[in-house]
Protein: SGNH hydrolase-type esterase domain-containing protein
Amino acid sequence: MPRVTLCSLVPIVVAFAAVYFASHLGVWEQAVQTICSKPAATRPTLLLLGDSLTEQGVDPNKSGWVALLQNRYQRSADVLPRGLSGYNTKWFIEFALPVIKRELSSGGISPSLITLWLGANDAALTDGPSSRQHVHGNTFQWILTPRIWRRLSSHCGRALRTLTCS
Structure:
């Protein structure tokens, strides 16, 4: 059985006395509010935007690139994929981008890095079965992709990256 001495009780008595006097002097509430009002440190968030390459990248059975990132950063960052199979860049701007902007504006996430990987569907052949998805290369490179970045840049001042196949 441990032996209790007067010297071993001194830190406990001092702590209780400090709390007692702080609460009676009105300092305690202010200290608690200051401690509680500080924003909690959050883990970095990687927001991965794209088409089917991103959506299907979460499949660990296919060693998907998103799954590999999630595995690699599981203890240090949140990896959030937003991939939409079948979307070309025009459809992404029209339908997906407003939803993503609302999600970012709500403050629910504050990404440290946003990646954009589009173009697989844009490259559909003009005379093939997926011709409606085709987007001309110049339109993709010079008009659509910069438009997406302009709309996202206010939500991620740190890093915006475009993943390309070239």
